[in-house]
Amino acid sequence: MPQRRRSFSLRQCTGDKACEGGKPCMDVNQTECAVWGLRGECKNNPNHMYQRCPQTCGVCTNVCEDKYDDCATWADNGECESNKDVMSTECPASCGLCAKLEHFYHHIFGIKDEL
Question: What's the domain range around 102?
Answer without folding.
Answer: 8-109
